[in-house]
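BUG: 3D viewer hangs when loading the predicted structure for this chain

Environment: internal workstation, default settings.
Expected: structure renders.
Actual: progress bar stalls at 90%.

Input used:
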Amino acid sequence: MSFSNLGLSDALINALREQKYEQPYPIQKEAIPAILDGKDILGIAQTGSGKTASYVLPILQQFQTLGSSKNRHIKSLILVPTRELAVQVNEVFKVLGNSLPNKIKSLAVYGGVSINPQMIELQGTEILVATPGRLLELISTNAVSLSAVKILVLDEADKMLNLGFAEEMAKLFSLLPKKRQNLLFSATLSDDLNLINKSLLRNPVVVKVEEEIKNLDLTKQFAYLISEEKKGPLLRYIIKEQKIKQVLIFCSSVHRADAVALKLNQNGIDAFAIHSKKSQEGRTEALNFFKAGKVKVLVATDLMARGIDIKFLPHVINYELPRSPKDYVHRIGRTGRAEASGEAISLISPTEEHHFKVIQKKMKKHVTLIDGNMFNLKGY
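Structure tokens produced before the viewer hung:
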């Protein structure tokens, strides 16, 4: 099946060709026609499954025929948990909407930066991508109104609930018109999310796409058993000896991400850390440099990695294991995407060995533990 079979306009089909989108992902095949029909959607799919385009495309198409509304009365609202994801989603709207006959202004708003430029930019905005906290600030200053919203999207709703946005989202829901189309996307369906589903969605089309197995099959997994104090030298050994050109390293805390990046730079390996304590300018610069290949290593916490979407990322390294097996699968799923193979490497300390066995059991994959002490790490 091609995109032309999904009911999209010629202008959008041309935009997809220009961006080298060849065939729709499973979630796009099911979600796009249903959204164009005005149905509510409950989409359960992992990051990297193509879910962003699955709602961006039909929203852009519907906006070609929607009438104009009052200034600062947006017509579509996309709520996301992080600044990075807000920027990424807005970029997809801009890229795919660039060649449409009727130009549509979209904007990303988020905290951590001055609110005044965002207030000015809201002039003429029709599609708004926002984090909940900053959106409430803008509403309180009358910079934007939700009374004309026709399409609401919750992207990565599971993460928003985990981060404690439930109260803020409840406030925002109370400001929305009752008659609207609702699109909810999440990696998992938790009990909390199920409550929102029941209260928010009307007879939704449920689209559930299992991407985990596909991602794991495309990803070669390696694990090294090594003491905690030798993880740093082994990490630098692997990067240098394997001549790794681009790698995303996961740490479990802000402090550890900073420490790992600092040690890499001190040993001649260009690296940036990206986490919630960094300024928005610093985070954007680090991400842009990494995507452009100007820096080979990005050290990230799990939350910040939500906005990192690189089509052909060759390597992922777990410096520390995440608490959840699902987060492990999400991490290594950053590589082995878009039909390209990738490598996921985990550094396992003796205290993490049991947890790594649990992870393997959950994902139904065996990963051989290699003795990290077999390498000569002197000088690393």
